[in-house]
Description:
mainly alpha
Amino acid sequence: MxxxxxxxxxxxxxxxxxxxxxxxxPNLRKRFYGRAEVADGGTVLLDGKPxxxxxxxxxxxxxxxxxxxxxAEWNSQVxxxxxxxxxxxxxxxxxxxxxxxxxRSVAQEVEKYLRSDLLFYRAEAPATLVERQSRAWDPVLAWxxxxxGARFVLAQGIxxxxxxxxSLEAMRAAIPVDPWRLGAVSSITALTGSGLLALALLHRGLxxxxxxxxxxxxxxxxxxQWGGDEFATAHRNYRRAEFDxxxxxxxxx
Length: 253
């Protein structure tokens, strides 16, 4: 069973929308187990046998609730096992195999986002987009100021602006040390383009709906002007599932 699991998850599954662009069909393995369940508080079992990560570490979750959520993904597979439809399992694999092994390097990636955060760079025009950005992003900056004493410099356009070191240090201290929360924050940061949004979600400055909406102000404005795109919508839905997996980890770990 270990070899089968590794074959399924050892490589990151191709984004289904990208696969569709390339006219590729995923080679999915048939479901080989009867039932997934949880034992010993956090161990995921397939037909009573412990599951291993691609790096052959135990798929052990920090809480029963999170383990049950992972087991539910396995039980939701029908005829085949589709890793693209198992974002929580993929994220837990990453946390166990990568984040827990090198937490400092993961935290440093979040810090890089904070130095050039999405929320710092504003449109010059049109007025409707400027107003949308301000309405969605200014409350996050106010939260960072009031909660952590972090004040940031805003810019129009994409020319890099340096941020006050003391503000960056204040937000760096807000990055979690626990690998589960760190892994979720890292995922949310990459998906939204904003370390501030990820940390606001972690520290309950914003809820998940507000964070997702704030991350897509520009994209949603463009869609209103020019209409939607089938592939863009599918890609966004795929990313939303990954975002929801990360928020699940924050909520249950």
